[in-house]
Specification:
Number of domains: 5
CATH architecture of the largest domain: Up-down Bundle
Strand content: 5-15%
Oligomer: single chain
Number of strands: 14
Distance between the termini: 131 Å
Length: 693
C-alpha cells in the first residue's frame, strides 16, 4: 500500500517537472522569436551561444566517461561535439554584422555552418556503429584535428571550399545539396538507432530520436531562405538549438540525474546475467551429484549397448569392418564370408589395407585422412578387395567415423557388387546387341529393296518375252528369290520391332474393332496358302460380333505368325482350328493344330528369343526363333496373356485371352493407311514355309 502511494507521488512529481520544462521551453522560444524581430544579430548570437554551450557540455561529460565505458561511443561523441562546438562558435563569430572577420558577406558563416553540420551528422552516424567497439581516445582526437585543420585551410588559406551563399541570389546549389545530404545522413542515423534500440535506455532512446528529427527539420528550413535574416533561417536556428538541448538531455542529463540508469545500462544487464549464471551454477552442482550417482548405471547401460551393437552388426547383410588407425578391431560374419576367412581372428588385428587391392591404396589412405580430420562420412566408392585365397572381389564401400575414448573409430560398410556388375554388363551387352540389330536391319533394307524391285522387273520381262522351259525355269528361280526376300523382310522387321520394344518406342494404334470379324478375315486370307499343303483350316466362334479396343494390324501379325507356325509343323491330312470364345469381360482366341507337337521339355522356353524347337538340318521350314517372342510381347501390350499346351506327336494349342475394353472417345493415335504397293504381309509371314510347286 505504501509502495503504491510512493509510486503515485513520483509520477505526479515527474509530470510537474515535465510541465515546468515544457513551459520554460515555450517561454524561451517566444522570447527568442521576439528578439529576432527586434535585433536578428542578437538573436543569432544567443541561439549559437546556447548551441555551443550544449555541445561543450556534451563533450565534457562524454570524454570523462572514457575510463568506465565498455565501448568508444561516449568518447567518440565527446570529441566530435567538441569540434562541432568549435566550428559552431566560428560560425557565430563570422556571421554577417559581427565584424570579427574581414569578409563582410554571409558566405563565410554559411561555409562554416555546412562544415559544422557535416561533422555533426557524420559523427552521430559513426558513433552508433561504435557501440560494440573500443578505440583509443588519442586516435579519435588526432583524426578530428587533422580533418578540422584541412577544412579550415580550404576556406582561409587555399580558398577552395565551394561558395555557399551569394548576396545577390542567395543560397548556392552546393549549399542546398549539402543540406539534403546532411538530411540523408541523419535519416540513416535514425534507422541505425532504431535497429540498435535495445542497447539504449528507453528515455535516452526517445530523446535521441526527437533530437535527430528536430535536426532534420532544421536542415530543411535552411534550404528555403534567400536572406540570412528571413523567418526560415530563424526557425532553422531555433530548431538547431532545440536539437542540441535534446541531445544534451539524452547524454548529460541521463548521466548526471540518473547515475544508476546510464546511457547503456550494461552494468545492470551484466549483474542480471551474473545472477542467472549463479543460479545455473547452483543447479549444475545439484545435477552433478545426481550424475555421479547415475554414472555407474550409465556405464552398465553402455556395456549393454555395446552388446546390442555387436548383435546388430552381426545381423546386417553387408560386411562390417571396425578399425582404429587402419587396424581392424571388429568384423561381422558377412566380412568373414566376403574375404573367405575361416574365423574372425584371422582378420582382427590386421590392417584394412591388407585386404584392399594395391591399386586402391591411395584412395583408401585419402579417405582415412579425411575421416580423421572431419570425423564425418565419406561417400560410397567402388574398390577391389583381396580374399584370403588371393582372388579379388568387386565391392562398394562407405565409411563413417566418430571419436570414442579419444580415438578415431572408423566403421566401414562393404557390399559385394560382383553380381550387380555382371548384371550391368549383361544389360549393356543387351543394349549393344539391340543397337547392332537395329543397325544391321537398316543396312540390309536398302540392298534388299533393290533386289526385290529388280525381281519385279524381271518377272514382268519374263511374262512378256520368255516362253517354254526357259520361262518355267526363270519363274521357278524368281519364286525362290522372292520367297527369300520375304524371309529377309520378315527377319529385318522382327529385329527392328525387338529393338523398338526394348527401347520403349514400340506403340500400339488402338481403336474399337469387331474382334470376331478381324480374326475371321485373317483366317480366311490364309486359306489358299494352307490348302496347297492339303491341311484343313476350320474357323469357329460362339459369338458373331464383339467390339473391343485393339490394334488391328498387330492382331493380324499375331494371327499370321501363329497360323504360319501351325502350318510349319503339320502334315497333309492334319487340321488347324481357329476359335473365338466370348467370356463377357474377356475374349479367348485359340489356334490349335493336330501337327507334330512340341516336346514337353521345350515348352518352357517356347516364347524365348532366338530359341527354336526344331534345330535339325533336315527340317522342312526355316525360322529365326524370334517370331513367338514378338507374339507374346504384342499380346502383353494389349494387356493379354498367351499360353501354350502341347503333346508331342498329337499337336499344339496357343490360347490368348484379351480384356474387353472400349474407347469412348477417339484415340489420339491416328490410323495409318495401308500402302497398296507395300509387300504383302501374308507372303512375308508365310515366307519360312516351303510349299509344293
Amino acid at each position: 500500500m505504501i509502495n503504491t502511494k510512493i509510486i503515485g507521488r513520483n509520477k505526479i512529481l515527474i509530470n510537474l517537472e515535465a510541465f515546468k520544462n515544457i513551459t520554460l521551453a515555450i517561454v524561451l522560444i517566444i522570447t527568442a522569436v521576439c528578439i529576432s524581430f527586434k535585433n536578428y544579430l542578437l538573436f543569432h548570437t544567443l541561439i549559437e551561444i546556447a548551441s555551443v554551450t550544449s555541445a561543450f557540455i556534451i563533450s565534457i561529460i562524454a570524454i570523462n566517461t572514457y575510463k568506465i565505458s565498455y565501448n568508444s561511443y561516449f568518447t567518440f561523441l565527446g570529441v566530435a561535439f567538441a569540434f562541432v562546438g568549435g566550428f559552431n562558435l566560428l560560425h557565430a563569430l563570422a556571421y554577417k554584422g559581427m565584424g570579427i572577420f574581414q569578409d563582410g558577406t554571409s558566405n563565410l558563416a554559411t561555409q562554416l555552418w555546412i562544415i559544422t553540420k557535416f561533422i555533426e551528422s557524420t559523427s552521430i552516424l559513426v558513433s552508433f556503429n561504435l557501440l560494440e567497439k573500443k578505440l583509443k581516445e588519442k586516435t579519435i582526437l588526432l583524426i578530428y584535428f587533422i580533418v578540422s585543420v584541412l577544412l579550415l585551410m580550404s576556406i582561409f588559406s587555399w580558398g577552395v571550399f565551394p561558395v555557399c551563399y551569394i548576396e545577390s541570389s542567395g543560397l548556392t546549389v552546393f549549399k542546398k545539396i549539402s543540406e539534403y545530404i546532411i538530411v540523408g545522413i541523419l535519416i540513416l542515423s535514425i534507422l541505425t538507432l532504431i535497429k540498435k534500440n535495445k542497447m539504449f535506455h528507453r528515455s535516452v532512446y526517445i530523446y535521441m530520436i526527437f533530437s535527430l528529427v528536430t535536426m532534420i527539420i532544421s536542415e530543411i528550413s535552411f534550404t528555403l531562405y534567400l536572406n540570412v535574416f528571413r523567418i526560415s533561417n530563424m526557425v532553422g536556428h531555433i530548431l538547431h538549438a532545440v536539437s542540441f538541448y535534446l541531445m544534451y538531455k539524452a547524454i548529460s542529463g541521463t548521466s548526471l540525474q540518473r547515475p544508476y540508469n546510464l546511457l547503456f545500462y550494461e552494468l545492470t544487464q551484466a549483474n542480471n546475467e551474473l545472477k542467472l549464471k549463479a543460479q545455473e551454477l547452483e543447479k549444475s552442482n545439484e545435477k552433478l551429484k545426481a550424475e555421479i550417482r547415475e554414472r555407474k548405471i550409465t556405464e552398465n547401460k553402455l556395456i549393454a549397448s555395446e552388446k546390442r551393437y555387436k548383435n546388430l552388426v552381426e545381423t546386417l547383410p553387408d560386411a562390417i569392418f571396425v578399425h582404429v588407425d587402419g587396424k581392424i578391431i571388429l568384423v561381422n560374419d558377412e566380412a568373414k564370408k566376403l574375404l573367405g576367412a575361416p574365423d574372425s581372428n584371422n582378420i582382427i588385428g590386421k590392417m584394412i589395407s591388407d585386404f584392399v587391392h594395391k591399386d586402391y591404396h591411395e584412395l583408401l589412405y585419402n579417405r582415412l585422412d579425411k575421416l580423421k580430420e572431419d570425423s564425418s562420412t565419406v561417400p560410397i566408392v567402388e574398390e577391389k578387395f583381396v580374399k584370403f585365397n588371393g582372388q579379388t572381389v568387386d565391392v562398394e564401400i562407405t565409411s563413417t567415423s566418430s571419436v570414442r575414448r579419444g580415438k578415431n573409430v572408423v566403421v566401414s560398410v562393404v557390399r559385394d557388387i560382383t553380381e550387380r556388375r555382371l548384371l550391368n554388363e549383361a544389360i549393356e551387352y543387351d543394349k549393344l546387341k539391340g543397337e547392332f540389330f537395329a543397325n544391321i536391319s537398316h543396312e540390309f533394307r536398302t540392298p534388299l529393296n533393290v533386289i526385290y524391285a529388280t525381281l519385279q522387273f524381271m518377272e514382268l520381262y519374263v511374262a512378256q518375252n520368255a516362253s517354254g522351259k526357259i520361262r518355267e525355269t526363270l519363274e521357278k528361280n524368281a519364286k525362290a528369290i522372292k520367297q527369300n526376300c520375304y524371309r529377309l523382310i520378315r527377319l529385318l522387321g522382327n529385329l527392328l520391332d525387338i529393338t523398338k520394344m526394348d527401347s520403349g518406342f514400340f506403340k500400339l494404334r488402338l481403336n474399337n474393332h469387331n474382334i470376331v470379324n478381324v480374326v475371321e478375315e485373317i483366317t480366311l486370307s490364309v486359306a489358299q496358302y494352307i490348302e496347297t499343303k492339303r491341311v484343313k483350316l476350320i474357323f469357329d466362334t460362339n459369338v458373331e460380333e464383339k467390339t473391343m479396343a485393339c490394334d488391328a494390324e498387330k492382331m493380324e501379325r499375331i494371327m499370321l505368325n501363329l497360323l504360319s507356325n501351325a502350318v510349319k509343323f503339320t502334315n497333309p491330312g492334319d487340321e488347324i482350328l481357329v476359335s473365338v470364345e466370348d467370356r463377357g469381360e474377356s475374349i479367348i482366341i485359340s489356334v490349335k493344330d493336330t501337327g507334330i507337337g512340341i516336346p514337353k521339355h521345350k515348352l518352357e522356353f517356347i516364347f524365348d528369343r532366338l530359341r527354336q524347337v526344331d534345330k535339325s538340318l533336315t527340317r522342312n521350314n526355316e525360322g529365326s526363333g524370334i517370331g513367338l517372342s514378338i507374339v507374346k510381347a504384342l499380346v502383353n501390350m494389349h494387356d493379354g496373356e498367351i499360353t501354350v499346351s502341347s503333346e508331342y506327336g498329337k499337336g499344339s494349342e496357343f490360347k490368348m485371352e484379351f480384356p474387353v475394353r472400349i474407347f469412348t472417345a477417339k484415340n489420339d493415335t491416328l490410323e495409318v493407311a495401308v500402302d497398296s504397293n507395300s509387300i504383302d504381309q501374308l507372303s512375308v509371314e508365310f515366307s519360312d514355309i516351303y510349299f509344293d510347286n
